[in-house]
Here is the input.
Amino acid sequence: MPTNFCRPRWFATSLLAALFICCNSPAAENVTVVIDAGHGGHDRGGIPGQRIAEKVMTLDVAQRLKNVLEASGYHVVMTRDNDVFVPLGTRVAIANSYRNAIFVCVHFNATNRMGASGIETYFYSRDSLPLASAIHHFVVGGAPSANRGVRRRGYYVLRKTNIPAVLVECGFLTNPTEGAYAQTASYRQKLAEEIAAGVRGRNSVTGTLSTTRVATSETVPLQPYIDQTKVSASEHRKSKRSHKKSARKKKSSSKSTGSEARYASTDPEA
Ligand SMILES: [Zn+2]
Here is the structure.
């Protein structure tokens, strides 16, 4: 057979192979990542008197995360892309409007005890544990902060979303060391890249729990987690009591229109 008859077949085979590789890359996963930058507008985040505004840090990391994920081919949606207040119910509605999507909430922690430090990653539905495991694995691996573990807790944005949802607390802004890190662009970029690595690696989480962080380059261990679902209920009651007046005004809407700050940006164990 003349070679000029073979070439088109070779090109066709190569094209099919390229398409196969392309279709199995994250770019063609057709997954939407809904990124939720915590707080915003009048909701500064953190605790009263906090020097570093949490809402600024979360937005910056979220925007960097968007850039990293888009470069990997993901479709990205932001619940907020500037300094505005977005009610929790709206954030959840945005997330739930996408099929084949995952939801990543970016927060920083705060507490009155300056020594408290470290990274925490929260999830609620069991389907979200692999994503939480992968994000926590990479963020803890890339940050110089302590590992405070993966935690299961009923935060509104995690309970009400129908898609895998994770809330990552990227360190304590009230801790002098972690606060200083957070204020550097290179560190926020690093956080974004590690969260993105977790998004990309969520399907490589192994099925068995591991107490060590030992993993091959291709697998991520499913993380053990602390169940704080009961803590959430008591914290919520406490919060409702201390905000009795505003709760009375807002009636039942306080839960979905309020800030995650009272729950997510405090450190109940510190
Ligand atoms: Zn927060």
Q: What stands out?
A: The first strand starts at residue 32 and ends at 37. The pocket of zinc ion is lined by residues 38-39, 45, 54, 107, 260-261, 264-265 (CB under 6 Å). The first helix runs from residue 3 to 23.
